[in-house]
Write a structure and sequence with these properties.
alpha/beta, TIM Barrel, three-stranded antiparallel beta sheet, 16 helices, about 25% strand
């Protein structure tokens, strides 16, 4: 089964570029991020460009729909490094006319001073890691900026970038519904076209996980967490931001195109330490992953042209599983016709029909002739529903 319709060109491509360095490791973060006293930025940038060229050579002509600079803290990059990588990506691939180029940034005063230079480098969408608008919460989350710095950075970014998103974390230890509602109102007054509003989770291997395991950090109970989630969705909707994904809210038409490539199970390539991808090469869908350690990754790229540590063909059954796990996070759900093209498996063959029927009766799923959709109630329960639904 082809991964794209036989009469079409190679599928469009989303590109993720990973900058793994941070000034400090946040206690809740399990991302591949590293703190270094010194970074040889020209050497690291050259390695990113070389791995990008290697990936482009084997993928061949593709339309590039998005570039996402993630981390780590990409706003620690020199703007000329960002400009060089954008230029290289658009040279190796054909940029879409409306290509989305996102850079993640922190709202410290030092990084905010560079925002205009990033815009001039070609970034047209900024994602600010605000995380909270409360100084005590920011300190508890290990953030290096204040609420006042966050507000100043948001106001500056709105004047510079045509598109802007920022992140907040809720269901924090000790947080009340009233306090979150007040913080939400402030956030929505500062918002542009997109917000990412994440419920705090305890990730293995993090400092928060150790504190939680030892009873030194307690999250809100299930009832309060549900109330916080509902308040989030209701406040965002009242402000004109639709919940298009479990944790993401946007003015219609301003959804993150790059993240939609993940959730719709499209092709995306990842370059940089720890970056992963799903890319169609002929009849095969490859799962790729780069070496996590920045120094080892750099040495491998300089030696081999890439830092790949694992590359495997994804079976039709595993494609189906991944496409469902990602796609049911979206309010639009999973399109049956695209699902079978991408996975080689019919949608109804990839799910437990008895569980689906029960979930439909309970109001957690909807099945139309063309789509399988998790309702708002269902998306609240995906962690419990998906292991039983997906074959």
């Amino acid at each position: 089964m082809a991964l794209v319709p036989t009469d079409s060109q190679a599928p469009p491509l989303a590109l993720y570029i990973h900058w793994p360095f941070c000034l400090a490791k946040c206690p809740y973060c399990d991302f591949n991020s590293h703190v270094r006293d010194r970074i040889d930025q020209p050497r690291f940038a050259a390695a990113l460009e070389r791995e990008l060229a290697w990936e482009a050579a084997r993928l061949g002509p593709r339309t590039l729909t998005s570039i996402f600079f993630g981390g780590g803290t990409p706003s620690l990059m020199a703007p000329e490094t960002v400009a060089g990588l954008i230029e290289a990506a658009c040279r190796h691939f054909t940029p879409a006319q409306d290509i989305e180029i996102t850079l993640e940034a922190n709202p410290t005063s030092v990084e905010a001073a560079r925002l205009l230079a990033f815009r001039q480098a070609g970034v047209n969408r900024l994602s600010l890691g605000v995380q909270a608008l409360d100084d005590a919460a920011l300190q508890a989350l290990g953030r290096r900026h204040s609420a006042a710095e966050a507000v100043a950075a948001l106001e500056l970014a709105r004047a510079i970038f045509p598109r802007l998103s920022f992140d907040l974390i809720y269901a924090r230890p000790g947080q009340t519904l009233a306090a979150w509602n007040a913080e939400l109102r402030r956030a929505l007054a500062l918002a542009a076209d997109h917000l990412s509003l994440y419920q705090l989770t305890i990730e293995p291997g993090t400092a928060f996980e150790a504190l939680h395991r030892n009873g030194l950090l307690t999250l809100p109970d299930e009832d309060l967490a549900t109330a916080l989630y509902d308040a989030t969705a209701n406040a965002a909707a009242a402000a004109g931001l639709a919940a298009y994904e479990v944790s993401n809210y946007a003015v219609p038409g301003s959804e993150s195109r790059h993240n939609l490539a993940y959730w719709r199970y499209g092709d995306y390539a990842g370059v940089g330490p720890g970056a992963h991808g799903r890319i169609a090469v002929g009849e095969t869908l490859l799962a790729t992953r780069r070496h996590r350690a920045p120094e080892m990754w750099t040495e491998r790229v300089e030696r081999d042209g890439h830092g790949t540590t694992r590359e495997t063909a994804v079976s039709p059954r595993e494609r189906a599983r991944e496409a469902l796990l990602m796609g049911l996070r979206l309010a639009e759900g999973v399109a049956a016709d695209r699902f079978v093209i991408r996975t080689g498996v019919a949608l109804d063959a990839a799910i437990d029909l008895e569980i689906m029927s029960a979930a439909i009766d309970a109001g957690y799923l909807r099945r139309t002739p063309t789509r399988l959709i998790a309702t708002a109630e269902g998306r609240r329960r995906l962690d419990a529903l998906l292991p039983r639904l997906v074959m």
